[in-house]
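Notes from the 1:1 (GR / supervisor)

We went over the backlog. Supervisor wanted to see one worked example end to end before approving the batch request, so GR pasted a single chain during the call. The sequence is below; no edits were made to it. Supervisor asked that the structure be written out right there so they could see what the output format looks like.
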Amino acid sequence: MEQAGTPPIVRIGMDAPFRWLCAAWRDLWRAPLAFLTYGAGIAIVSVLLSWALYATNLDFWVIVLTAGYVFVAPMLAMGCYEGGRLLEKGCKPTLRQMIFVRAAFRQDVAYLGLALLMIYFIWTGFAQIVYGASTYQLYKSVPELVAFAVGTRDGLAMLAIGSLIGGVMAYFTFTFVVVSAPMLLDPRANVFSSTAASFDAVARNPVCLTIWAAIIAAFILISAMSGFLLLVLMFPWLGLASWRAYRELVPGPL
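Structure output shown during the call:
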């Protein structure tokens, strides 16, 4: 029996994430200038923010920023969802349409964004606690911090505990938004029914969507290892694939 106000969720096969990526790759090149420019904007902001943290000896926060993409990316990707929606309708999206997404300027989207921001702040709080409990020293450079993290017992314990806490919170966030973020482009949807649909989608397709979550995490890690430069390509690609995921999990009229 479906929850009141919650759309029916489709059960899908384990190959679905790879189909979403293949379809999204084709979508990306149907309007490459708009999508790659959108990704470039995300990459530039990420690089500048990372450089500012590094230049002010706040290296620890570069790591927190990288992990934080899991929590804020669903809202940043609203333009990509809109691009996917327009492509599905047979229209070629423009950068202006992707930046100024009219359907995103409403109360329910703001509520979802606020919830994600609160989760992110909770995560940063835990990260500081784990870091502070692991060492009393303030590391002044990324190499020093990495050497501590991978070369000492306390550092390895910090990584293990931080990864466990971060992984649990990241998966909860994924469960919270995998359907709800793109669904809120539909003005008929509200934040309660869309988040309920998100949890229902993961409950009905736990293995498939866990694979999808792992793929997203891998893309974010690879992008971070490139100094966030690969976000130019990977961010719109993932955003379009996420739209594809939503449309397969929750079929119906646009």
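Supervisor's comment: The first helix runs from residue 16 to 28.
Batch request approved.
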